[in-house]
Amino acid sequence: MECGELIKQYLLSLLTVFRKKIRGKKYTLPQILILATIPDKGMDMTSLSEKIGVDNSTATRLIDGMVRLNLVIKRKSHLDKRITIVLLTEKGEQTSEEIENKLDIIGEEIFNQIPMEHQDDIKEALLSFHWTLLKYNNSV
């Protein structure tokens, strides 16, 4: 299997895990990604849209829907009023924590299916691949 095909298959498999095991009926995949992305101190809209890979107008629509669901709030930056900061509400923090807990459990379940003698090598390879992806994304 070529590298591009392998990456596509990983992506599809991960999306399936998110859709079946994490999303449930409540939230969309983009909403889950946003909840998992916003740090405790909040994040500006431009950085958020770049991080989840959508344009600013799409991020704005997603965030506005999440404001209506009481998952996030929007505030103007104290330093620059043109910048909008997105913060998790208490409900958003709880939902984000639930998602993180589910991800930890699912990750363990998947990882435990790998023979013990290969787990360290697989983890090291995944960390290396992730680091390479980060560098690649920052260079494009």
Your description of this structure?
- This protein has 140 residues and is mainly α.
- 69% of the residues lie in helices and 9% in strands.
- Helix 3 crosses helix 4.
- The longest helix has 24 residues, at 116-139.
- The protein is globular and about 50 Å long.
Poorly predicted residue ranges: none
Count of domain modules? 1
Briefly, what CATH class?
A: Mainly Alpha
Main pleated-sheet profile:
3 strands, antiparallel
Rg result: 17 Å
Shape annotation: globular
What separation lies between the terminal Cα atoms?
25 Å
| Mean pLDDT across residues | 91
The percentage of residues in β strands lies in 5-15%
Number of helices: 6
Q: What's a quick, concise take on this entry?
A:
With 140 residues, the protein is mostly helical.
Topology:
Blueprint: H1 3-23, H2 29-37, E1 43-44, H3 45-52, H4 56-68, E2 72-76, E3 84-88, H5 90-111, H6 116-139
Antiparallel strand pairs: 1-3, 2-3
Notable features of this structure?
140 residues, mainly alpha, Arc Repressor Mutant, subunit A, three-stranded antiparallel sheet, 6 helices
